[in-house]
Amino acid sequence: MKEPHKYFDQVFITVRAGDGGHGAVLNAPNTQKQPTKQDQKKDKDKSKKKSSLKRDFDGSLILPMGGHGGDVVIYADEGKDTLLDFHNKGKYIAKRGGNVNAMGVLSSLLRNGIAAPTLRIPVPVGTVVKNKRGKTLADLAQPGDEVLVARGGQGGISLLEVPQHQKKRMMSLTTSVMRDESDKVLVHGQPGEEIKLELILRVVADVGLVGLPNAGKSTLLAAITLAKPDIADYPFTTLMPNLGRLGGDPTLGAGMYSSEATLADLPGLIEGAHLGKGLGRNFLRHLRRTRVLVHVVDAAAENPVNDYRTVREELRMYNPEYLERPYIIVLNKIDLPEAKDRLSLLTQEIMRIGNNGTASEPKPSPEVPDESSSDEVDMPEKTLEDYPPPLSVVGVSVLKGIKINEMLKEIRAALRKCTDSNEPLRVPPPP
User: Fold this and answer.
1) Which residue has the higher pLDDT, 284 or 263?
2) Cβ of 12: how many Cβ atoms within 10 Å?
3) In principle, which of 67, 208, 252, 331 could form an S-S bond with 115, CB 3.0–4.6 Å?
4) Where's the OBG-type G domain (predicted)?
């Protein structure tokens, strides 16, 4: 696969459940022979042998059946992180059920065919499973979540083949009596279900790192987690999202373990990413599950404020709901003189972009509309100034380790704000 970053998060596969095992055509046991005087001592054993045939609660005979075909289950596995393996193998077939291992006389030794095991297919946590029509079957957002996507076929029944003069008597014991040759179709197991599925991976992370290429997102992830993303001095070093685990807040004591969070480093965005330019559009959907966004801005760039606006505008054009989420600004590379000298000015300019909710409240119009006017009012499109400002702006140097603790403090505070909020997180619809 030449460009795995284009295929790691979406794939089409076909799954087929196992067919049911076949039943058998059995001859009825010979019950017409009467014991002689010499066999009187064996009457009791024969009666036990006759009664040893499996019977239901109403006394009817129970005939063996073919084994059930294997089901197909897709489950979320923490050990998986991409869907690339599915591009090498696009069809999955479960085993068929076992046949009734007999073609002879009905006896108590006959057993049902062996049921086939369930075929379990692991996928990364956060995978959405859809059918070929686009209907969502499951959203496997938690480890261990699973969905049954194809049911195995039922096993075939067994039939008794008896002479014509015995049919009436045997039919009083069981309904599985072969009437003619056409009944043999009932012996065959039913086919398993086959379905074409679309798997879409949406990264499960608490914090999403966004920014222009080479802003320092991967370096930041490597500095505060154990992740080892590719880092280089050229654009688009990150081709696929990288995940890292942020340790808990040590000031919480024993509660630090419950404050751990997952960070996702997404490939850099460029202007026009929402239209498909660069790599952005392929990965913007991975922000859907995040609770907090961290905008990494290169403070030593020519125009950091414009870079910040570019990223925010691309998020707004892709899905405005992303701009409603809590976020902080990380001004990176403040160890460089051109960034250090204007850090205070950049912080003030960025904090002025947005409002705290008071300015964006719709005001009632003083004019009374005519009765003939439409009830629908066209609301003006929101701009960046109409959305909430960042919770904080932190200047750091990830490479030099300057003010890393202050940045972590702000990230954890933003996560606590989401946790303490009574309002549920608004999840935008999938694009």
Assistant:
1) 263
2) 13
3) 67
4) 205-416
**Per-residue pLDDT tens for 75-112?**
999 888 778 788 888 899 999 999 987 666 667 677 88
* pLDDT tops 70 at residue 208: yes
As a 3-state breakdown, the chain gives helix, strand, coil percent values, each rounded to 5, of 30, 20, 50
153 with 97: CB under 8 angstroms? yes
Phi, psi of 109 (to 5 degrees): -85, -10
Number of helices followed by number of strands (H, E) in the chain = 9, 16
- Structure tokens belonging to residue 385: 């100034």
For the record, the structure tokens of 226 come out as: 């154990």
Taken in order of first residue, the domains within the chain and their CATH numbers are 4-30+61-201 (2.70.210.12), 207-359+379-420 (3.40.50.300)
According to DSSP, residue 359 is labeled T
For the whole model, what pTM was predicted? Answer: 0.66
CA distance 255 to 371: 60
Strand order in the sheet with 242-246: 242-246, 261-265, 207-210, 292-298, 327-332, 393-395
Q: Concatenate the DSSP letters of all residues of 120-185 into one string.
A: EEEEETTEEEEETT--EEEEE-STT-EEEEEPPPPPPBPEEE--GGGHHHHHTT-S-B--SGGGGG
β-strand partners of 244: 263
- Residue 245's φ and ψ, nearest 5 degrees, are -105, 120
Q: In which band, very low, low, confident or very high, does the pLDDT at 381 lie, cut at 50, 70 and 90?
A: confident
Distance between CA atoms of residues 49 and 36, nearest Å: 17
Distance from C-alpha of 223 to C-alpha of 218, rounded to nearest angstrom: 9
Return d(Cα 141, Cα 195) in angstroms, integer: 22
Which pLDDT band holds residue 120 (cuts at 50, 70, 90)? Answer: very high
Percentage of the chain beyond pLDDT 90 is 19
* Torsion on CA atoms 380, 385, 391, 393, rounded to nearest 10: 150
- Residue 276's identity, in one-letter code, is G
b (16+ CB within 10 A) / e for 303-324: ebeebbebbbbbbbebbebbbe
CA 204 to chain centroid, in Å, comes to: 9
Closest CA to 268 of 306, 305, 296: 296
The pLDDT-based confidence of 234 (bands split at 50, 70, 90) is very low
What whole-number distance in Å separates Cα of residue 149 and Cα of residue 157?
25
**What is the mean predicted confidence (pLDDT) over 322-351?**
89
Say how many CA atoms lie within 13 Å of 397 toward its Cβ.
Answer: 14
